[in-house]
Amino acid sequence: MSRIGAWFVGARGSVATTAQVGAAAMAAGLVPSTGMVTELPLLAEAPLPGVDEIVFGGHDVATVTLAKRAEQLAAEGVIPHGLPRILAAQLEAADGRILPGAEDGEPQAAAIGRLTRDLRRFRDEHGLDEVVVVNLASVEPVCEPQPAHASLDALRAALAVGEHVLPTSSLYAFAAVEAGCAYVNFTPSTGIQLPALLELAEERGTVWAGRDGKTGETLVKTVLAPMFAMRNLRVRSWAGTNLLGGGDGAALADPQRREAKLEAKDACLPSLLGYRPQMPLHIDHVEDMGEWKTAWDHVSFEGFLGVGMTMQFTWQGCDSALAAPLVLDLVRLAGAAQQSGQHGPLDALGFYFKEPAGSDEHQLDRQFVALLRWADTLDPR
Ligand SMILES: NC(=O)c1ccc[n+]([C@@H]2O[C@H](COP(=O)([O-])OP(=O)(O)OC[C@H]3O[C@@H](n4cnc5c(N)ncnc54)[C@H](O)[C@@H]3O)[C@@H](O)[C@H]2O)c1
């Protein structure tokens, strides 16, 4: 049996912790796989690594232990009470595989070298066939383009003279490509999506996917917007208000980071409708909501003879519980793609993202069909 590694950037965050606890609980037969798309009967024949075959590791700048984070999430009701205690041994072992992340002061060339070595050591020590690096770290501010981003030569030259030219998420992406890992960006941060890094990825035949997991409000939008389009109902405005707590909410309280998230959330509607309605979108941090999120959407639309109507929905989700099973799916799928010798952006994984790399398709049902068809092309292990 092949062994697969999942390396989480932001390994002590809510989503990463929930994914690690969930995988351990599933492997022990304690919880069902609800929420994992790869566990659907439609994908039963796909040659994917088992969840119990995944070895977890990662980087983080936080030092709180995984067990402590799991207890905090249990206290919030994200993880069943008692589970962190039952899985204490697994969580302690996983915690030992979480290494210090890249901090702002570290020279970038040195940081890339260190992160690359960490990844290679992880693969060698655990005899892993494939390693999938998943970015689950806090959202970073929108990245301003720089000349060094334009080509690999320019980037290498800038790094060689000690210039600080990459956003932190791209240091990890660089290391992932250098170490021969698959790369998945579950956040709106830049990651691999700079011309210089895409050039490197192309050179190395890297498998990659992203970006920004589609787990809540945008997921609903990509189901409902096609309905308006198919019935030729004209959407005049689609206003969204998002209230969230947790670490993600705290990060998004910063206007520059919020801008990155809003950009990702903005992508689907004009593409699905074929025009751009008025679409004000707000994100507010409400500490009291903890790991829960509320999205309220108000859609104003026009029917026959110009008659105006509205539709509203309220989504109340536990973000980490929605995201964690998708992260496990992505590890299995990207790992299998790498094992099948695929390379480049995995457009069939667009199903999982707000800004699907390699595809303009946002409609969820079509994305699902594309995913199923693609899964048929994976080589049996
Ligand atoms: N939960 C969802 O439904 C969902 C959906 C789409 C995207 N996301 C994205 O997933 C990411 C994780 O969300 P979360 O709720 O777990 O957030 P979180 O705040 O709980 O976790 C983020 C983790 O990243 C770590 N981190 C920060 N800077 C780092 C660095 N330089 N290197 C390594 N680690 C670093 C933090 O210490 C923290 O442990 C966020 O970017 C979020 O926007 C989440």
What this model shows, in words?
- The chain has helices at residues 14-27, 66-75, 83-86, 88-95, 108-125, 152-160, 168-178, 195-204, 217-230, 246-252, 255-266, 268-273, 319-339, 364-375, and strands spanning 4-9, 54-60, 98-100, 130-135, 182-185, 207-210, 234-244, 281-285, 292-302, 308-318, 344-345.
- The model has no long low-confidence stretch (mean pLDDT 95).
- The strands form two sheets. The protein has a seven-stranded parallel β-sheet, with helices on both faces.
- It has 381 residues and is an alpha/beta fold.
- The structure holds nicotinamide-adenine-dinucleotide.
- The site of nicotinamide-adenine-dinucleotide has 31 residues, from helix 1, strand 2, helix 10 and helix 13.
What is the number of beta strands?
Answer: 11
* Low-confidence spans: none
SSE order, one letter for each helix or strand: EHEHHHEHEHHEHEHEHHHEEEHEH
Arithmetic mean of pLDDT:
95
Which class best fits the helix and strand makeup?
A: alpha/beta
Q: What percentage of amino acids are in beta strands?
A: 15-25%
Radius of gyration: 20 Å
- Terminal CA distance: 8 Å
Any idea what the shape is?
globular
Considering the chains and any ligands shown, give keywords for the structure.
381 residues; 41% helix; seven-stranded parallel β-sheet; single chain; binds nicotinamide-adenine-dinucleotide; four-stranded mixed β-sheet; alpha/beta; globular
Produce the secondary structure layout.
Layout: E1 4-9, H1 14-27, E2 54-60, H2 66-75, H3 83-86, H4 88-95, E3 98-100, H5 108-125, E4 130-135, H6 152-160, H7 168-178, E5 182-185, H8 195-204, E6 207-210, H9 217-230, E7 234-244, H10 246-252, H11 255-266, H12 268-273, E8 281-285, E9 292-302, E10 308-318, H13 319-339, E11 344-345, H14 364-375
Bound molecules: nicotinamide-adenine-dinucleotide.
